[in-house]
Amino acid sequence: MRIGSIARAAGPRPYLVRAVLTALPVVSLGLLCPVPSLVMALRGRGGAGWWPFLAFSAVLTAWCTDLALTPEDTHGALFAADLLLILLSTAGASVHAWTAWPRRSGRP
Question: What confidence score (pLDDT) does residue 11 get?
Answer without folding.
Answer: 57
